[in-house]
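Database export, one record per block. Field names are fixed; values are copied verbatim from the stored entry.
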Amino acid sequence: MKAGTDDPTLKYVCRNLWCRCPAAQPLEKCPRCGLAANFLLISRLRKAHIICGLLLTLGGGVMWCLSFAILENNEWTIPKRTPFWAFLLILGLGGLPIAGGVSLAVFGREWFMRMILRCFGWRQA
């Protein structure tokens, strides 16, 4: 959540990932981004942050386990001689979702979600 939403009277927030305009009641149109009927309860957004953060952290942890299994060259890994750069790539790609998931679940920061959307061509509304 953005700074300035500590006011207990502000119970709603804009659904737009790049806006997050706080409001005391659901408005018909967001005053900041202009999207219509686009408000949700902050408590629901917080629950969604926790669930998505845990799933991201779990996915990153699986990628880390995979990278350590490749490094050890266990029986169940596909290539027997994996280059070290592949291990570093999987380790780095696993670390990003872990960092993004923890920051989303614990702190409510949405930088990782914005980064994913920008990678797939979505731009700020």
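Remark 1: The chain has a mean pLDDT of 81.
Remark 2: Strands lie at 12-14, 22-23, 39-41.
End of record.
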